[in-house]
């Protein structure tokens, strides 16, 4: 399974056959980044 993050409530969700967030019902989910990934600001 792949971990996703809900765009509305920011909960981590594992997607099986359901494509909606089980916490808030929102349909827009983004792939969650790994714990070691850091954001960098562009100069």
Automatic annotation (TrEMBL):
One of its GO terms (biological process) is DNA-templated transcription. It comes from the Archaea. The keyword Nucleotidyltransferase applies. Binds 1 zinc ion. Zn(2+) binds at residues 9, 21, 24. Its EC number is 2.7.7.6. DNA-dependent RNA polymerase (RNAP) catalyzes the transcription of DNA into RNA using the four ribonucleoside triphosphates as substrates. GO terms for cellular component: cytoplasm; DNA-directed RNA polymerase complex. It catalyses: RNA(n) + a ribonucleoside 5'-triphosphate = RNA(n+1) + diphosphate. The keyword Metal-binding applies. Belongs to the archaeal Rpo12/eukaryotic RPC10 RNA polymerase subunit family. This is DNA-directed RNA polymerase subunit Rpo12. Gene3D superfamilies: RNA polymerase ii, chain L. Coiled coil: none annotated. Its cofactor is Zn(2+). It comes from Methanocorpusculum parvum. GO terms for molecular function: DNA binding; DNA-directed RNA polymerase activity; zinc ion binding. It is found in: Cytoplasm. SUPFAM superfamilies: RNA polymerase subunits (SSF63393). Keywords: Cytoplasm, DNA-directed RNA polymerase, Metal-binding, Nucleotidyltransferase, Transcription, Transferase, Zinc. Part of the RNA polymerase complex.
